[in-house]
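Customer escalation, tier 2.

The customer says the design service returned an amino acid string that "doesn't look like it belongs to this structure." They asked us to rerun it and document both sides in this ticket. The original structure tokens are below, unchanged.
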């Protein structure tokens, strides 16, 4: 993994960088540089200075940045002087660009900024012909024309190109971007953001830069190129309202924050239109609290509201830049930033830096916050304390000590006396240390300095108390104190207290003098964090700060930091030490300080690792049958997004992303609105359909095709699992479950709620969710005892074995092989002709000569396929002689016209005929079904029971394929198969309240079997009469 940098700014405007291969923060070389905000991209970082100028830092590389300036010298031939720079009035300029429209003399070229330097002088480009022969000239008949290095007899004009290179010399340092001249620049800017380098497939794509002025205007930086990293000019982008802050992702996402707390989304961003086309407004995540900050990535959007709550926008994609809803994420942050690979960085409420762990493509919201626990300082330089009153580092050995000058030890209360200036003080390897004690001077409070006034004005105000009131409380108490304290070197070691491990701050050693408490409110550590946010204002603070204590962060940018979920980075460890940003009052008792720090350390340790709401995403590629004409298959991207609430509730959305006329669009289906998921047959693809109540009314489900059967089953299992989770359905089917089958043999199940039949909470039938059970049946019957029987297309009886929710596997003993055979029919149609008799030449209004039974769809033997790819042919096409109504010896049925009733013999009035062709196919699946041999059945009925029934055994009535009425006794949940006994003939039967009804097949008579009761004897079980 390449080495990249994380950039951050503290409240005093100092800029730090942290390498993924290092362990320490490194401050910028320019000690006078003060930035308010930074935005990083690949290999570069932009910043806004306190002087409202834009600064750029290009990462050093082996390849230098060079730009070639060029201009053309143009001449025309005349009979007296030959070729000369005296041109016709209609000619181009003597020195111009390649088009000749703009004058470009050599002296007009200037360096764009101090970050560039010339490499040599102007020279003729010798790439055209031999330099000794042509001198770099190109000849043509006239302007403009095609130039060539060969001079001809009719060459009346010529030109040659002059070039000069300039090199960018500010790599690795912060360079100021010059003002646009003569155009008016959009300064002052209050926010900038760079992105867009992943908008194309080009690996070296340059980023775009956007800015927001203090007047709420949005500006776009033009001309940024790998050879022109600074850009050339600013272009204003119109906005409907005043903008306070914006964020640009690496792709084509741009969100802006309005002053009223709402958000704007820029649409139409592309390579051809880098500034986009229009704005769409999105409301704040909370109606009561306005948004404070927004950050976007490739396909994620994070927002912080003014109550410091973090929100995640779900459903965001280049096809749907506005997203579909907000998810509350745990943690209290002041700002967030999205880096490479959609990794998230944040500045916490305690002014510490945090990283979102667990962020992956499948879980873009992550699962917790951890602190960035890097060390402070650098081996090359010593980071000074915060305005000479913030301290970091640990005391070193006495051999490493040095006596700083009086200027180094000056405090904000005034310079120390000569005694203190000569006091030896130990020096840290990473930071300067100020003596803790000595004779206290009576420096007047009015000499208090205001350090870094400009950065403090730009820092957020909510956490930082008024520095005057806080520091004056310290100073007023300090002025009343006349007790002197020895310096570090004078403290007796026998009275010292052992230093606790980091991040607990070292305690003061006990001396012979009493330590006086200051008149400062010490309730909790919140005041301590606030004290650090404004910085310590006392020079002789009697306390050393540990190495883990560092800058008070105000801004972070991870756009150039390449961190993946599997990256092993030393300063990103959930179990590592926290980068504590506690700042306690300078004079406290050792016992009190240790107790407060331990409590605060436990509080901060729990806070970053707190579990919160999360979002899980599964993406893939499928084919979609387009809803409108012309209907055709379209390659689409799909994504299933599931959000998990803090209470465990889950909510999912299924997205389909497609493009129409180069415009990105999307479809979305809420999983809680899905009513059925079934595989279907369409164009021999592995296809499944997603039904909702609205799409069912329109008779147009969402049809998707997968490249393989395994892929289709995976998506069906995934979607079905999400549907069950959002409805709280889990485990095996309940006894009150509703069972049904589709026309294609799929077994569907609905779990009714307790209020299914309640009038006040009645659920419409089109809103019921039906999940699929493994297996294949033609019909199914069930009752409240949990008994489920079914019949296949081949009249085989099957009984449910009680297993559900497990994937078909040969290892699972409860999943059995289930086979089914059915016949596929096509009809051959003919019309009688007086000349040729019956022929396949019909009238224009007739049905197709090969069709289905209805005659509405053309079906030939060649284009008719099995119901789904799971079926396979087991026979060839043959004439079917078992058609209802009878046939002649060739299988034909006759009628007067289409469509009428067909019969099996020809009459004088029969002008059309048809015959049915059949072919058998077979399916083999695994499901929780056991076969009940040996009699083939055509219909079945189970005795219904109430939910509170204590009945253990029920009879199962059935019809054989020959019309025999059968009854199976002893059927129970423990023995669902039992045994069978014959009765008489019927064609259909139904059972209700211990009464049996049957209908004969031929003369359609209805028979009723009187009330019977269940007992253990066969005679009583079969009833009392008929």
């Amino acid at each position: 993994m390449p080495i990249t940098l994380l950039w951050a700014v503290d409240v005093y405007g100092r800029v730090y960088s942290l390498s993924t291969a290092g362990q320490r923060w490194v401050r910028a070389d320019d000690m006078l540089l003060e930035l308010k905000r930074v935005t990083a991209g690949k290999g570069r970082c932009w910043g806004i200075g306190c002087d409202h100028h834009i600064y750029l830092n290009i990462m050093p590389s082996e390849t230098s940045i060079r730009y070639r300036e060029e201009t053309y010298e143009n001449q025309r031939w005349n009979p007296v002087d030959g070729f000369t720079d005296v041109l016709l009035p209609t000619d181009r300029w003597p020195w111009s660009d390649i088009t000749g429209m703009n004058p470009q003399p050599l002296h007009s070229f200037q360096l764009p900024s101090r970050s560039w330097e010339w490499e040599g002088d102007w020279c003729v480009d010798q790439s055209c012909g031999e330099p000794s022969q042509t001198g770099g000239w190109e000849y043509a008949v006239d302007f403009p024309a095609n130039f060539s290095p060969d001079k001809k007899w009719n060459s009346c004009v010529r030109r040659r190109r002059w070039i000069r290179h300039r090199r960018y010399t500010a790599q690795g340092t912060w360079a100021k971007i010059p003002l646009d001249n003569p155009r008016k620049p959009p300064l002052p800017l209050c926010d900038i953001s760079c992105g867009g380098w992943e908008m194309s497939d080009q690996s070296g794509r340059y980023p775009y830069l956007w800015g927001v002025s203090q007047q709420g205007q949005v500006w776009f930086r033009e001309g940024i190129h790998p050879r022109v990293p600074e850009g050339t000019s600013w272009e204003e982008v119109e906005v409907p309202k005043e903008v306070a802050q914006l964020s640009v992702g690496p792709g084509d996402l741009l969100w802006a924050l309005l002053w009223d707390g709402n958000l704007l989304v820029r649409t139409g961003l592309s390579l051809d239109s880098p500034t986009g086309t229009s704005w769409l407004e999105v409301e704040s995540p909370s109606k009561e609290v306005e948004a404070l900050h927004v950050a976007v990535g490739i396909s994620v959007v994070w927002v912080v509201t003014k109550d410091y709550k973090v929100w995640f926008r779900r459903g965001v994609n280049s096809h749907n830049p506005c997203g579909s809803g907000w998810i509350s994420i745990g943690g209290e942050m002041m700002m967030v930033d999205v880096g490479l690979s959609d990794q998230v960085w944040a500045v916490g409420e305690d002014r510490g830096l945090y990283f979102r762990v667990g962020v992956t493509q499948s879980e873009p919201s992550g699962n917790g916050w951890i602190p960035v626990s890097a060390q402070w300082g650098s081996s090359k330089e010593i980071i000074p304390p915060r305005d000479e009153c913030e301290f970091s580092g640990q005391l070193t050995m006495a051999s490493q000590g040095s006596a700083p000058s009086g200027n180094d030890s000056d405090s904000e209360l005034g310079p120390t006396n000569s005694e203190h200036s000569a006091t030896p003080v130990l020096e840290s390897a990473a930071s300067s240390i100020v003596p803790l004690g000595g004779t206290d001077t009576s420096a007047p409070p009015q000499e208090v300095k205001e350090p870094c006034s400009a950065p403090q004005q730009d820092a957020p105000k909510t956490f930082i108390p008024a520095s005057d009131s806080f520091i004056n409380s310290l100073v007023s108490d300090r002025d009343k104190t006349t007790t002197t304290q020895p310096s570090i070197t004078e403290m007796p070691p026998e009275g010292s207290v052992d230093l606790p491990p980091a991040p607990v701050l070292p305690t003061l050693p006990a001396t012979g003098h009493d330590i006086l408490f200051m008149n400062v409110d010490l309730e909790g550590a919140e005041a301590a964090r606030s004290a650090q946010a404004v910085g310590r204002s006392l020079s002789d603070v009697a306390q050393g700060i540990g190495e883990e204590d560092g800058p008070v962060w105000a801004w972070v940018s991870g756009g150039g930091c390449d961190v993946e979920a599997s990256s092993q980075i030393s300063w990103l460890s959930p179990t590592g030490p926290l980068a504590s940003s506690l700042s306690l009052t300078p004079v406290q008792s050792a016992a009190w300080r240790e107790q407060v720090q331990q409590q605060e350390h436990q509080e901060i340790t729990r806070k970053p690792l707190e579990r919160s709401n999360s979002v899980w995403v599964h993406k893939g590629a499928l084919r979609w049958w387009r809803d409108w004409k012309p209907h055709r298959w379209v390659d689409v991207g799909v994504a299933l997004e599931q959000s998990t609430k803090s209470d465990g509730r889950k909510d999912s959305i299924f997205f389909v992303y497609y493009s129409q006329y180069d415009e990105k669009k999307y479809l979305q289906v809420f999983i809680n609105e899905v009513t059925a998921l079934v595989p279907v047959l369409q164009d021999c693809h592995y296809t499944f359909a997603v039904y909702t109540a609205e799409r069912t009314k329109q008779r147009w489900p969402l049809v998707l095709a997968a490249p393989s059967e395994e892929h289709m089953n995976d998506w069906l299992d995934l979607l079905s699992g999400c549907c069950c989770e959002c409805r709280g359905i889990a485990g095996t089917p309940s006894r009150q479950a509703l069972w049904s089958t589709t026309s294609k043999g799929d077994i569907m199940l609905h779990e009714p709620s307790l209020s299914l039949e309640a009038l006040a909470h009645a659920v419409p039938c089109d809103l019921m969710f039906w999940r699929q059970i493994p297996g294949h049946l033609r019909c199914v019957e069930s009752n409240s005892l949990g008994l489920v029987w079914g019949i296949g297309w081949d009249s085989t009886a099957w009984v449910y074995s009680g297993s559900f929710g497990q994937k078909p596997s040969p290892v699972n003993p409860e999943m059995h092989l289930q086979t089914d055979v059915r016949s596929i029919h096509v009809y051959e149609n003919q019309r009688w002709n007086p000349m040729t008799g019956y022929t396949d030449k019909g009238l224009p209004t007739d049905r197709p000569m090969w069709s289905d039974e209805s005659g509405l769809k053309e079906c030939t033997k060649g284009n008719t396929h099995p119901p789904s790819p799971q079926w396979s042919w087991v026979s060839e096409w043959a004439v079917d002689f078992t058609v209802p109504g009878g046939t002649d010896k060739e299988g034909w049925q006759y009628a007067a016209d289409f469509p009428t009733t067909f019969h099996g013999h020809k009459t004088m009035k029969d002008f059309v005929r048809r015959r049915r062709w059949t072919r058998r196919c077979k399916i083999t699946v695994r499901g929780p079904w056991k076969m009940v041999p040996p009699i083939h059945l055509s219909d079945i009925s189970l005795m219904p029971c109430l939910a509170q029934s204590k009945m253990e055994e029920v009879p199962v009535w059935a019809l054989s394929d020959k019309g025999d009425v059968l009854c199976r006794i002893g059927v129970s949940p423990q023995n669902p198969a039992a045994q069978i006994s014959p009765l008489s003939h019927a064609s259909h039967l139904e059972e209700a309240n211990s009464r049996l009804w049957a209908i004969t097949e031929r003369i359609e008579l209805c028979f009723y079997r009187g009330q019977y009761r269940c007992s253990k004897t066969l005679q009583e079980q079969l009833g009392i009469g008929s």
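Tier 2 assessment: The sequence is consistent with the input. The first helix runs from residue 131 to 134. The CA atoms of residues 969 and 1017 lie 9 Å apart. Sent an explanation to the customer and offered a walkthrough call.
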